[in-house]
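Structure request: PTS system glucitol/sorbitol-specific EIIC component, Periweissella ghanensis.
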Amino acid sequence: MQYVTEFASGFIKLFNTGGAVLVTWMKTIVPVVLLLLVLMNAIIAFVGEEKIQRFAQKAGRNVLMRYMVLPFIAAFMLGNPMAFTLGRFLPEFYKPSYYAAQAQFCHTSNGVFPHINPGELFVWLGIAQGIQALGLNQIDLAIRYMLVGIVMNFVGGWFTDLTTKMVSKQMGITLSKEVELKV
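Returned structure:
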């Protein structure tokens, strides 16, 4: 009977600890994320969805824009998973590469912009807590992680272009590389 009682106590303690963490988040990170989401939606409404769509189509013409700038803007403005939707304006050939670059950026920017990927914020918070315990500046780490991530997004997108080309050739499939602007 003692084991059952200890198990039940431990089980409840797990939820009490989770509740305490949730309350801490509700006082610290949740308001920040909420306000950033409101700001991003306001900017999209102010600029206009059509202008954002045209920008995404034009960005698809240049490899640096496609795998460095567009993923950054999409993640910052729309967050994860909505950031992937800007890939619909790219030609079929570049969609896998955009997805690869975008998926990486949603992880590497979380320390600087927590609203991008709040579902995985606990990973960054764990790392940041360790950095803080060492007496180091977590913002320095967040910025370095994001900058390295932007470069690696480009490399990942470009490498995916190469593999898409190889696989398309092996499969006998021709994917369009043309951007069709609908103005």
